[in-house]
Amino acid sequence: MHALTYIVNGCDGNDLPSQGEEGSPDEECLQEREDQTSSYSNAKENQASSNGTTTISSLKRSESLMKASSPSASWSKILKSLKKFFAYQYFEKPNDPHKYRITPRVMLHGCTTKDEHYEYIEKILKIARGKFSLEGLQASGFTYKFIPCDEHASDTDLCPRETSRPHCTCDKRLVHISTNTIITKNNLKRFVADGEMYEAIVRLCQEHAQELMREEGSLHWVSVCEDVQKGNPIRILVDRGYPIHGKDCHGLENDSIHDDIELQREQEIITNDGADEVETLLITTGKGKVRAGIFSRQHLLVSGIESSTALPMVRDAKQRNMSVAIFDPNARGDRHGMASYEQSMQFLLGSAQNSLHTNSKIGTGPIYILAHSASGSQLTRYLQTDGQHILPRLRSIAFTDSNHSIQWLKNHSQISSFFQSPSTIYIRSSNEDRDDGWEKHKCGDECETDEHWKHRFGKTCTIWAGTTDHSLTNFTSQDQIWAHFDRCRQFHDAENDDATVDSGTCSTCTGIGVDMLNL
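^ that's the sequence the OP posted. Answer follows.
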């Protein structure tokens, strides 16, 4: 009773007087309440005795005094006091940090109590802090191992290790070292707890996957923006051996850049005269917490590196002697994804105001773009605003579950025409609730689009990805993506040589269509 009365009057539990002390809370509160009530009653009596001679202002002052002490006026004050009191009594006061933690539904491997569970999480966080890539994973008790599929389990020499295809489940899987257990969707929570531990392990897995792409693709990190006041640095993965206007990931100036960069690039572009043009594959991921070259964080843990990253695309590009550039639009969070995307595009391909802000090789060769999910919208917006100067070099686009709309391009007929031309393909995943007969949709099958789809994406050639998982559309359809790019490459090469290309048609598009891609 003492605590509640004292809280109502704006005091917390630290100042509670003991029973029997002078100035106890109930005596003070009652006396103050009686004084306020009597003043209001006296004002009413004076009004009655003087037959209305009491002024309106005196009555208002008395009423305001009463309102100030009413429960409605003190409600916020009461809530603040209650919050302080209970926060102190039940959250700040205990010495045991685990006392009020919720007992997890699934205990981590080797833990029998919630205290052991949370202590193990803190141990992993401490180990992972300051470590990177595979070193941090192994120190945390995990590693990646090549796991062959059932078909190649007896003779792994027959397995296409370097080019794992969608029909083969051979992959580099995350393994718990001490138990030699492959991490799957069913046992993930037994080895990786949700929350901080999940984020720490995922960070290390993404760094390892990026390291593999960097090594196998002969790529390196280049910084686009290092302004710490704006957030984390924005970087891109690009080919080695060509000059880039900026700094590398260690903040060191590139040695190949002279003082007069603009003059150097202008001279290189003129002297090349198109003889050394290099085709470039630009890979952009969706929004969220995925980083450069990563399509799914969860699949990176439970499915493998091949199926969840752009590593197979990088390998295939290198087999075709193409340059590779991988953006990291989520470097500063998905809310700033568009700004990071535009900065990366301008850094690599230049701007409309100054088209010489490009590399001498990448800047003059054809561009092929793989745009997944939200990056399709980012590409569309970029082409509308500052990217129209790259349209002559843009050879082909493969959208995978992109969320752009052709309606955004009503005032940009050139871009709209390109999106609906044979040079563009849209690959979509199946939806169990939305698509009738989704289980019959095989990868590469032509998608019969309705009026709603045509209103959203126009007449873009659309095929099925052969999966219901949005994050796996790039992996399951990589053969179809490369078939599309290769046909576009063959078409433009033949066009330059005044030759003809065997073509087919489909009901969705003409020229380079589904039949042409042998899907």
